[in-house]
Protein backbone atom coordinates (compact mmCIF):
# COMPACT_ATOMS: atom_id res chain seq x y z
CA UNK A 1 0.00 0.00 0.00
CA UNK A 2 1.45 3.38 -1.02
CA UNK A 3 0.74 6.26 1.35
CA UNK A 4 1.14 9.97 0.64
CA UNK A 5 1.05 12.61 3.35
CA UNK A 6 -0.16 16.07 2.40
CA UNK A 7 1.79 18.14 4.90
CA UNK A 8 5.04 17.26 6.60
CA UNK A 9 4.75 18.71 10.09
CA UNK A 10 4.63 17.08 13.50
CA UNK A 11 1.56 14.95 12.83
CA UNK A 12 2.98 13.52 9.60
CA UNK A 13 6.32 12.91 11.31
CA UNK A 14 4.67 11.01 14.16
CA UNK A 15 2.62 8.88 11.78
CA UNK A 16 5.60 8.17 9.53
CA UNK A 17 7.71 7.15 12.50
CA UNK A 18 5.02 4.82 13.77
CA UNK A 19 4.38 3.21 10.41
CA UNK A 20 8.06 2.70 9.71
CA UNK A 21 8.62 1.20 13.16
CA UNK A 22 5.80 -1.29 12.44
CA UNK A 23 7.53 -2.48 9.29
CA UNK A 24 5.98 -0.37 6.53
CA UNK A 25 8.37 0.13 3.63
CA UNK A 26 9.72 3.69 3.35
CA UNK A 27 9.75 3.31 -0.46
CA UNK A 28 5.95 3.16 -0.33
CA UNK A 29 5.62 6.50 1.46
CA UNK A 30 5.80 10.04 0.21
CA UNK A 31 5.25 13.49 1.66
CA UNK A 32 4.13 16.67 -0.08
CA UNK A 33 5.53 19.68 1.81
CA UNK A 34 6.01 23.24 0.58
CA UNK A 35 8.25 24.46 3.40
CA UNK A 36 11.95 23.92 2.69
CA UNK A 37 12.93 23.68 6.39
CA UNK A 38 10.20 21.08 7.00
CA UNK A 39 11.38 19.06 3.98
CA UNK A 40 14.93 19.12 5.32
CA UNK A 41 13.79 17.91 8.75
CA UNK A 42 11.80 15.07 7.19
CA UNK A 43 14.66 14.05 4.91
CA UNK A 44 17.02 13.93 7.89
CA UNK A 45 14.65 11.67 9.86
CA UNK A 46 13.00 9.42 7.29
CA UNK A 47 14.09 7.75 4.03
CA UNK A 48 10.81 8.62 2.26
CA UNK A 49 10.13 10.45 -1.01
CA UNK A 50 9.51 14.16 -0.48
CA UNK A 51 7.89 16.41 -3.06
CA UNK A 52 6.92 20.06 -3.23
CA UNK A 53 3.93 19.58 -5.54
CA UNK A 54 0.91 17.29 -5.04
CA UNK A 55 0.92 16.02 -8.62
CA UNK A 56 4.39 14.54 -8.08
CA UNK A 57 3.84 13.29 -4.52
CA UNK A 58 0.50 11.65 -5.21
CA UNK A 59 1.64 9.59 -8.17
CA UNK A 60 0.84 5.97 -7.46
CA UNK A 61 -0.55 6.63 -3.97
CA UNK A 62 -3.30 4.35 -2.70
CA UNK A 63 -3.98 6.44 0.42
CA UNK A 64 -3.82 10.18 1.03
CA UNK A 65 -3.33 11.34 4.61
CA UNK A 66 -4.22 15.00 5.04
CA UNK A 67 -1.78 16.16 7.71
CA UNK A 68 -2.23 19.93 7.76
CA UNK A 69 -3.56 22.27 10.41
CA UNK A 70 -7.31 22.91 10.14
CA UNK A 71 -6.81 26.55 9.23
CA UNK A 72 -4.54 25.50 6.33
CA UNK A 73 -6.92 22.85 4.97
CA UNK A 74 -8.61 25.01 2.32
CA UNK A 75 -5.32 26.16 0.78
CA UNK A 76 -3.82 22.68 0.91
CA UNK A 77 -6.75 21.05 -0.83
Structure overview:
The chain has 77 residues and is of the alpha/beta class. It has helices at 10-21, 36-45, 54-57, 73-76, and strands spanning 3-6, 29-32, 49-51, 63-66. The protein has a four-stranded parallel β-sheet with strand order 3-2-1-4. The protein starts with a strand and ends with a helix. The relative contact order is 0.29. The mean pLDDT is 93.
Mean pLDDT: 93
Which strand order do you get reading across the main beta sheet? 3-2-1-4
Beta-strand content bin:
15-25%
Number of helices: 4
Reported for the largest beta sheet, the result is:
4 strands, parallel
Question: Helix share of residues?
Answer: 25-40%
Morphology: globular
Order of helices and strands: EHEHEHEH
Defining key terms:
77 residues; 4 strands; alpha/beta; four-stranded parallel β-sheet; 4 helices
Short description:
The protein is built from 4 helices and 4 strands; from the N terminus they run E-H-E-H-E-H-E-H. A 4-stranded parallel β-sheet has the order 3-2-1-4. The two termini are 22 Å apart.
